[in-house]
Amino acid sequence: MDEPVDSKTVDPFSVDRFPKQKTFNLGDVVTDAAKILTEEERAKLEEQNKRLVTPFKALKLEQEARKHWDLFYKRNENRFFKDRHWTTREFSELLAGEDPAAAASSSPLAKPENVEKISVEKKLLEIGCGVGNLIFPLIEDGHRDYFIYACDLSPRAVELVRQHNLYDERYMKAFACDITTEEVFQTLPEASLDIVTLIFVLSAIHPEKFQSTVANIYRLLKPGGVVLFRDYGLYDMAQLRFKPGHKIAENFYMRQDGTRSYYFAEEEVSKLFSQAGFTVIVNNYIHRRTVNPKENIDVPRTFVQGKFRKPEQA
Question: Coil, helix or strand for 183?
């Protein structure tokens, strides 16, 4: 497996850095600089190398990826992930084309019996939909200006989406597929989508399949279509917490439940999408601290967030 592109390691909290996009949470630092590690943090990363996941175990994890995610949703159902009401704040593209009057007059909880299939021109695909923590908040907030497709590797997750009280095939369709393969094209034709969301999903895929995944997304999008991306960034708190025996490869780890997680360098993400033919609109690290003095919690998080467009002339 190719090692990720080295990232800059200047101080991400330096006021001399000019952010590439707005911050949306008080205290966020938006920058193209990776976190600078302390000596203690460097020691933690070195400690991880003392015992790696064996090649046999790594292959088994890849072969059983679907099974591990199915078991995850069997255990947790819809109780694990919080609803993502923040997506329209940070990705305004999800609001594009909305009719304010229609949104104001619609009740997202209602399912009128005598209404024909909703007519929408634009189409959105959420990859790795889980139990619908992105799509259902969109509907609750009145954003029905896209026909929503939602796919996940886990059939159990897709079934939970279909059981949701807001699931309505007049304006959405959930289906199971492995986005790293050609399977998605059994449901969606090429050049059929306006927006694809890829939020905390690519990190769960084996790095050797990143290119095929992004290439499939490129094929699915119409010319001018956009990918909205967020995922775990290099040296995120979760990466530093892994103990020996969990590291599969550089920046790629196994969790206790058999699911996996990769931690991205910003430059690596830009290169991945650029090589697939996308234009980078914006791409950067978001350094965020979750602070709760009452609970004595101060958790530093690092994400990579970007937007990538398929050229109009593609």
Answer: helix
